[in-house]
Structures are given as structure tokens and as C-alpha cells.
Amino acid sequence: MERDAYEKLPPGELIERIARAKAEKNAVLLVHNYQKMEIQELGDFIGDSLGLSQEAAKTDADVIEFCGVDFMAESAKILNPNKTVLIPEREAHCPMAAMITPEALRSMKTAHPNAVVVCYVNTTAAVKAESDICCTSSNAIQVVQSLGDREIIFVPDKNLAAYVAGKTGANIIPWDGHCYVHADFTLEDVQEAKKKHPEAKLVVHPECPPEVINEADWVTSTSGMVTYVEQHRSDIEKSGVVIGTEIGLVQQLKNRYPGLEISPLSDWAICTQMKMNTLAKVAWSLENNEHRVELPAEIMNTARLSLERMLEVT
Ligand code: 13P
Ligand code: SF4
After folding, report:
1. 65 pairs with which residues across the strands?
2. 181 in contact with ligand 2, CB cutoff 6 A
3. What is the dihedral of CA 37, 39, 44, 46, to 10 degrees?
4. What DSSP line would sit under 36-79, residue for residue?
5. Which pTM was predicted?
6. Pocket of ligand 1 contains residue 277 by CB under 6 Å
7. Distance from C-alpha of 76 to C-alpha of 80, rounded to nearest angstrom
8. Which domains, ranges and CATH numbers included, belong to the chain?
């Protein structure tokens, strides 16, 4: 059956097909926190970039169906070169990952020959292969601290770089990239949220601009936000919480804790690329073994070192 035909099937049938194909193929469904709720509900593991990499590194499934954006599925493939890694939508690219090329990174390395290169996991495999160590939003501080007082090239997110530099005092040379979803949060959004929810704590992602981060009570990765809400339930019952990240995570939290007042910092923080995956595409992908993530062996072998160094430090 063609992929478009799956879109006409009822959700119940798609869910049955996904369950059947997963059992037949010994597949695991790894799902990022920003995915549509109907996909999150079927995930064997739902998490942030670090959790998903750790899960990919230890899975004994034969097939990994990865619901997220392409750099996440590529990381799963790099960590499991002999497994089949599938993505439901080939065009789900993270725009921030496209903001730095291996050529641009090589020029930066030439300009700063003594610097160590830290790449955010939101990068292509080729950029990871040019880097010394990878990091995610949940371990960037730890990774940078593990490098002592060396000069650091940090790519591609300038906001995460500024946050980590502020927390560690490290000498960081940032690349001028950003995430369009988080870079759009403004001080006005913060002021409006504080007016509407004067007692609520503000929890934001480190990809937000510095002026937003400076107003936050807590800065953490998407799964760090889930842990924050779990650990502060009684405070949130009294005063609420405002969450500054993509709306998919806010929806997940609202579903988990229907009694809590959990508000988005903006209703418009939507990552279109994350939302390209649908139940129909997941069913099609699993039943047809498409789209397979394939990368050149030499790039995978070098990129793996930067991911493995990160996993060792974390
Ligand atoms: P997390 O690793 O915090 O889930 O972030 C991934 C991402 O793409 C943020 O925009
Ligand atoms: Fe990339 Fe931002 Fe979307 Fe995350 S939310 S995948 S960083 S564009």
C-alpha cells in the first residue's frame, strides 16, 4: 500500500498495524517529547535527546523506529550501525542543525587551532565527525566542565553556548546558530505570563535567548522539565508553572497532570519539523521498512567517538 493510502485509515487500525509490525520485527518506538500526542502515547520510550541516545545505545531491539527529527535518528544509527533505524518522514530536518556545515567548522578549527570542539547533538553526522565531543541540553554544562580550562568552540546554538559559558565561566567561541522555536520567546512573553500567573514559577529550555533565561526560575532540557513538574507538584498545585519550550512537551505535561495549572510561555511555540510525523507515516514506515537511515561508514565511525565521549561523561 502507498504511503498516502495509510492517511485514510482510521486511527484504531493504524495503532493495531503499528503494534503488529513492532511485534513481528522486534522493533522499539523511540519518541521525542515534541512529537504529536497520538505518537507519544505509543512510544516505548519518550524523552529528550540525551535519554533517546542512551536508550538507542542500550536497546536489544532489531529495529529502531525513531519519531523525532533526522539528527536524532542519525545518532541512533551511529550508535547502532548494524541495526535498522527507520524514520517516518525523511524531510523532518532540524533547521538549527543545518546552520553549521563541516566546512564552516573546519575553518573555525583552523582559526582556533588549540580549541576543543563541542557540538550540540542538533548537528549533522558530518559535523559530529569534525567535533571532539557532543552534548545535549541536559548535559552541556557537565560536558564543558569535563574539558578543564581549554578554549572551546561550541556549535551551533549561540543561546545554549551563552548559557553554558555563564554557568561554567568557560572560554567559549560560539557559532551564530539558533532554534527558531526557542529564539522567538521574548521578554514580552515573560511579562505577559507573569501578569496572568503572578505566583507561577517559570521553567525554560536553554535554547531560549539570554534575556528570557535571566527571568527563569529553572533552566533545563525537555525531560528535565518533566522531572521538575514531578518533583514540584505540591508547589505547582498552589501557584502553577509556566513552561518555555515547544508546545508538545506542554501537552504531554497537561495530560500527565490534568489537575495542575501548566501554561505555555507561548501558544505559538511549534516545531513544524517535529510535527511532520503522523500515525499513518509511522505505520507505513514500520510495515515497509522505510525510510532507512544510512550514513557513510567513515563518517559514522568518527562521529561515534564524539557521541561515545559524551555518554561516558554523562
Ligand atoms: P531536548 O534534548 O531538551 O529534548 O531538546 C531537543 C530539541 O530539539 C530542543 O529544541
Ligand atoms: Fe530543531 Fe528547534 Fe525543532 Fe528542536 S525545536 S528540532 S532545535 S528547530
Report:
1. 29, 86
2. yes
3. -50
4. -HHHHTT-SEEE-HHHHHHHHHH---SEEEEES-HHHHHHHHHH
5. 0.97
6. no
7. 6
8. 3-93+274-295 (3.40.50.10800), 97-178 (3.40.50.10800), 185-264 (3.40.50.10800)
List, in sequence order, every residue forming a beta bridge with 243; answer none if it has no partner.
203, 264
Question: What integer is the mean pLDDT of 294-306?
Answer: 98
List, in order, residues 6 or more apart from 20 with CB less than 8 Å away: none
What would the pLDDT profile of 202-259 be if each residue is shown by its tens digit? 999 999 999 999 999 999 999 999 999 999 999 999 999 999 999 999 999 999 999 9
C-alpha grid cell for residue 83? 541495526
Ligand 1 site-directed mutation target among 221, 225, 227, 228, most atoms within 8 Å of CB? 221
Phi/psi of residue 108, each to 5°? Answer: -65, -40
> Which residues have C-beta within 8 Å of that of residue 96, sequence separation ≥ 6?
120, 122, 156, 157, 177, 178, 179, 180
Pairing relationship of beta strands 152-155 and 172-174 according to DSSP bridges: parallel
CB 90 within 8 A of CB 147: no
One-letter amino acid for residue 256 of the chain: R
